[in-house]
Structures are given as structure tokens and as C-alpha cells.
Specification:
Blueprint lengths: L2 H7 L2 E5 L4 H12 L3 E8 L5 H14 L3 E5 L6 H4 L5 H19 L5 E2 L13 H7 L5 H4 L4 H10 L25 H16 L6 E5 L3 E5 L5 H6 L1 H8 L5 E4 L5
Parallel strand pairs: 1-2, 1-4, 2-3, 6-7
Antiparallel strand pairs: 5-6
Helix pairs in contact: 2-8, 5-6
Length: about 250
């Protein structure tokens, strides 16, 4: 099936919008195909502020309606306990909320940006997508990440070269309790490093209070040159900082 055929079959869709490469292209393609399309973004403690800012910017420029819903996931002990199936549990709750919002606006089809390269064994949340009846047209139409980036560039989308980004909870190792304090210091640390010019990196927690910095190999020299500045930024939040030499 071609993407255009999917939109012809489903001319009115709600999109679970993250602002990433995949969901951005899906939203653009649906709008370009003339669909009645509405974007929905759930702002929980797991999403940094910059993601919301980018979502608002993208949908405003595309002139597609956007609903932003603030939703706390930290009230659920099944999520904060951070067991191996935490992603599945969280995704299920988020999708339930998205379905409620979409149906209130008269949408009976909810889509997400899962692509053909995504493997369910690597993404526990995909089980929740299937159970909740969420459609993944990019995946169903055989579009992988590389092709989506290419098509996005052709369309002039600013997201065509956007690095992959996972929620803040993925920085906390399984079995470590997730708290707002941990999430805040990770978000602030990553925001500060981004302003220094680093990109496509992660600040991960090594219990009890160590920052494990993962940066692309191409930025190691830059990180070494700015070692003192990095330590000054991260030490207010962590007792120690280590560089992951095997990362990326």
C-alpha cells in the first residue's frame, strides 16, 4: 500500500505527534494529501520543554491544529518503579489519553509515526500501539527512516536531519525509582550541553548520583577541549561525571 492510498482510505485522522522525524513527516504528508488531520501532544514529566516548543513551532508553520495536554505520569507507581515493562505501561496510559482527546474531537482513527525500521523487540511501546488499535501508516507502507529523512528534505521540513530523541525516562536505569528531581537535573544538564554546541548526546544516570555522558565520537575532541566547562555545568547536579568511551 502507498501512503497516498492510506490517506484516501482514511481522510480524517488524529496523529500522536512527538515532533520527531517520523511523526512530522506523517503529519505533513496527511495535510498535503488533503486529510482532515489533527495533531495531539502529551506533555508529561518525561518530555523536555524544548520538545513542546518544537511541536508548537512545526504545527504552527504547517497550519495544522494542535492539542497539547498536560498529563502527569509520576502519580503511577507502576511507572515510577521503573520495571523492565515501564515503557509499555507508560505508552498504554498515554495512548488511552490520546484516544480520549481524539474521540472528543470526532476522530476515529489514531496514527503514530512508527516506521518500517522499528523492531517491536526493541520498542516495548509498540505492543501498546497494537493493543490500542493505533495505526502506523509509515510502517505499513514500508517507509524506513532513511527514506523518511529523504522525503522530509525534499518537502523542506526542518526535521529532516533531526537526531533521534528518546524520553527522559530512558536516561534512568531499570530498577531505579524515577523522580521529578532526577528528571529535572537530567533535562537541565542536557539543555546546558546543547547550548554549548553538542548534539545527539545523552546524559544518563549511574546510581546513585553519577552522570554518564554519551556523545558521538565526532564530538569527543570538542568535549575534551571543554572538559572544565562541562564539569562546571554538570557537577551542581551530579557528584561525578564520566565519559562513556563505547557510546555512539
Amino acid at each position: 500500500m502507498q501512503l497516498q492510498q492510506f490517506f484516501q482510505k482514511n481522510p480524517k485522522i488524529a496523529v500522536a505527534f512527538s515532533g520527531g522525524v517520523d511523526s512530522s513527516y506523517l503529519l505533513y504528508a496527511a495535510d498535503a494529501a488533503g486529510c482532515d488531520v489533527h495533531a495531539y501532544f502529551i506533555k508529561s514529566e518525561f518530555q523536555p520543554q524544548f520538545e513542546l516548543d518544537e511541536v508548537i513551532y512545526f504545527t504552527k508553520n504547517l497550519d495544522v491544529p494542535l492539542t497539547v495536554e498536560n498529563y502527569s505520569v509520576l502519580h503511577d507507581p507502576f511507572i515510577t518503579e521503573n520495571t523492565p515493562d515501564r515503557c509499555y505501561k507508560c505508552k498504554t496510559k498515554i495512548l488511552n489519553k490520546l484516544w480520549m482527546l481524539a474521540r472528543e474531537n470526532g476522530y476515529k482513527v489514531l496514527c503514530d509515526g512508527t516506521n518500517a525500521d522499528d523492531v517491536e523487540s526493541d520498542r516495548p511501546g509498540m505492543k501498546a500501539l497494537r493493543e490500542q488499535g493505533v495505526l502506523s501508516p509509515l510502517r505499513d507502507c514500508g517507509l524506513g527512516k532513511q527514506e523518511i529523512r529523504f522525503l522530509s528534505k525534499q518537502a523542506g521540513l526542518p526535521t529532516h536531519d533531526k537526531p533521534a530523541y528518546a524520553c527522559l525516562a530512558t536516561r534512568v536505569p531499570v530498577g531505579t525509582q524515577i523522580t521529578i528531581e532526577i528528571l529535572n537535573k537530567i533535562e537541565r544538564s542536557e539543555d546546558a550541553l546543547f547550548k554549548m554546541g553538542f548534539s545527539d548526546f545523552r546524559v544518563r544516570l549511574l546510581p546513585p548520583d553519577i552522570a554518564r555522558l554519551q556523545i558521538p565520537n565526532s564530538q569527543w575532541n570538542e568535549a575534551s577541549a571543554q572538559r572544565k566547562e562541562i564539569l562546571e555545568i554538570l557537577r551542581p547536579y551530579f557528584c561525578n561525571v564520566v565519559l562513556d568511551m563505547e557510546s555512539r
